[in-house]
Amino acid sequence: RIVSFSGDMWSNSDQLVTAAIPDPSDKYLIGYYHSYDPYPFGLIGTGTYGSAADINATKAKFDQVTAWSKPNNIPVILGEFGVIDTADYNSRMCAYGTVVDQALSHGVPSFAWDDGGSFPVYNRITGGFNEIKDILIHTYPQSPNTIG
């Protein structure tokens, strides 16, 4: 069995790295967190994303969880991430690309959130994917990640 655990409230990275580890000797633990950062861009859709500061803040989240993961010998997954569909289009695509890029470079498996509503990737009626799918699967070194 594998046991995944996170912090309380909204399961963000800050809450994961301060959570009590259920059993530090358990070799089957996985830490997980969610990210809709930066708030309010990710969850409300206000503002834009793509500045050096934005990208560095995303990288810092991954640095934070991997810095916690290694000494605790607990793998980490990004169990949910996304940007609401009302956010600026180019900023939204850049945010998805940045998260995928950082997840790959930090060795953190990531899962895009698709709620069938405001965080769409797959259209359940037509059976088709939108353009976010291309960002999620084009993970080769030459893939574009600075969409502007």
Structure description:
It is a single chain. The chain has 148 residues and is of the alpha/beta class. Helix content is 37%, strand content 16%. The chain has helices at residues 13-18, 41-44, 52-72, 89-106, 132-137; strands at 3-5, 29-35, 76-81, 110-112, 122-123, 128-129. The strands form 2 sheets. It has a 4-stranded parallel beta sheet. Helix 3 (52-72) packs parallel to helix 4 (89-106).
Backbone shape: globular
Following the backbone from N to C, one meets helices and strands in this order, namely EHEHHEHEEEH
Task: Tell how many strands the DSSP assignment holds.
Answer: 6
Largest sheet: 4 strands, parallel
Structural class: alpha/beta
Strand order of the largest sheet: 1-2-3-4
- Unreliable stretches (pLDDT < 50, length at least 5) are none
Roughly how many Å apart are the termini?
43 Å
| Number of alpha- plus pi-helical segments | 5
Average pLDDT taken over every residue: 92
Strand content: 15-25%
Query: How would you describe the oligomerization state of the chains in this entry?
Result: single chain
The level of helicity is 25-40%
Instruction: Return Rg in Å.
Output: 16 Å
Can you give me a brief rundown of this structure?
With 148 residues, the chain is α/β, with parallel strands linked by helices. Helices cover 37% and strands 16% of the residues.
